[in-house]
Amino acid sequence: MHFPRPKQKIVVAIVYICGMVMNSLDSTIVNVALATLAREFSVSPAAVEGVIIGYLVSLAVFIPASGWLGDRFGTKRIFLAALAIFTVASALCGLAGSLNQLVAFRVLQGAGGGLLTPVGMAMLYRTFPPQERVAVGRILMFALILGPAGGPILGGFLIEQLSWRWAFFVNIPVGLAAFVFGLLFLHEHREEAPGKFDAIGFGLAGVGFALVMFALSEGPSRGWTIPWVYVPGIIGLLVLAGFVWFELRTPEPMVQLGLLTNRLFRTTLLVSFFATIGFIGLLFLVPLYLQEARGVSPLVSGLTTFPEAIGVLASTQLVARLYPRVGPRRLMAGGLTGVGIGMILLSLTGLATDLWIIRGLMFLIGAGMAYIFLPNQAASLATITREQTGRASTFSSVQRQLGAALGVAILSTVLAFIGPTTLDAAGQMIPNLAAYRGAFQVAAIFAFVGAVIALRVPDREAAATMLPRAVRPEAEEAPVFDAA
Q1: DSSP 313-365
Q2: Which class in CATH covers the domain with range 260-469?
Q3: Which of 128, 231, 274, 474 is 20 to 30 A from 330, alpha carbon to alpha carbon?
């Protein structure tokens, strides 16, 4: 008896969304759980930072190797292995009996997370041809938005109603379902000549990115002038400089820096980098502003931030229709300009501003971000060959992680430098709105810089992604399932 098999495009889309949503939800939910973890393990809030740092450092170590591993051993095999590692590590985190155990399991979880994103992106872009990259962008919307926006709400609910352990257990059913589905239906792909493993490049990239991520995560809370922070940061930058020098001279580099000579890929990468700094920094800042300055609960804070995700999803269909006619350059430049204006308007809100005004601004900012997410994802790999897709996806993952870390580090540093609290005339400690306003304005600056860079995106080189979807043969168009 033969059972219908889903089309490969459907399979890749499902497993990718499951993996990415699980990955992004985990990070935001764990952030909500930090205060609870400090109480649970009877340690200071600063002591539980290892739960975040261990994950980020492990992530930074494994991302650079992901492209080669997928090319060498097959994207299906590596993606499923990463999914299994992440899911098992999530279960172990939920069962942890001490803080040290939890940090160790988070390091393991980071190894899986570091492989999930770039390998999953490589599968997507190999499965969907350039003229269908807008469709890929629609898929990516769910992975990019649902985690950061929905994590605080889901995390607050799970921790309040169940326990902190469910911040990790929630990954298990999604991970298991995605693993079984992918095992049954995913097709394998591997490159015939992936080259030798660049052990020196892997070591340099892992050490360099790990040290830089450590400094970025510790600097805002401990201060940038502390040797414990700036020494690893400087060493990390020097190691990365050595990594670049070595990769440019080795015949089979782990990270193909030559891809940066591709103008379309390079420019869209920079646009995404600055957009990520401003946007992820904003998603970090708004809950702080609402909870610390406005005094709302974590749940209300999450519900006030969530309209941003609705804005993205609401705009996606319009952006998809505009993209073939307008092209990525004007859409991204206009979208980032609108996002920057929204951030400026947020900086003008005060303690008495109605929360619905803030929700409306978050909705508009999300709507503007759809004009960056979808065109950028559609155009970025338009001139990248199928053989280079895995390595190019690695680049995209690295810039996204660095951009996110920089966004949080820069805005939290601005907040700390100005001071989130101040004394009133009676000597009472009150929120210092100037600090939050300054941070909002810095986020806006990054959005405006991204808009300027977007004006240099060559629409002509992205032409293959701007074609209307061709009418396919009946065998390709009609069924969602293959007969097998």
Answers
A1: HHHHHHHHHHHHHH-HHHHHHHHHHHHHHHHHHHHT--TTS-HHHHHHHHHHH
A2: mainly alpha
A3: 128
Q: Which residues contact 393 (CB under 8 A, 6 or more apart)?
A: 66, 67, 117, 118, 119, 121, 122, 125, 381
Domain with CATH 1.20.1250.20 in the chain: 1-197, 260-469
Q: Please choose, from the candidates 244, 219, 243, the residue with its C-alpha nearest in 3D space to the C-alpha of residue 231.
A: 219
Burial (Cβ within 10 Å: 0-12, 13-18, ≥19) of residue 321: exposed
- Report which DSSP code applies to 431: E
pLDDT tier, 360 (very low <50, low <70, confident <90, very high otherwise): very high
Tokens of 347: 């900086």
In this predicted structure, the answer to whether residue 172 has a pLDDT above a threshold of 80 is yes
Q: Comparing 75-89, 148-162, 443-457, which segment has the lowest mean pLDDT? A: 148-162
User: Hey, which bits of 118-180 come out as E strands?
Assistant: none
Token pair for residue 189?
């792909």
Residue 385 burial (CB count, 10 A)? 8
Looking at residue 442, its pLDDT comes to: 93
Least confidently predicted of 119-123, 269-273, 462-466: 462-466
* Residue 162 Cα to chain centre, angstroms: 27
CATH topology (fold) of 1-197: Growth Hormone; Chain: A; (1.20.1250)
pLDDT confidence of residue 87: 93
Reference 48, options 37, 32, 33; nearest CA is 37
Classify each residue of 37-69 as buried b or exposed e, where b means 16 or more C-beta atoms within 10 Å of its C-beta: bbeebeeeeeebbbbbbbbbbbbbbbbbbbbbb
The per-residue pLDDT for 393 is: 76
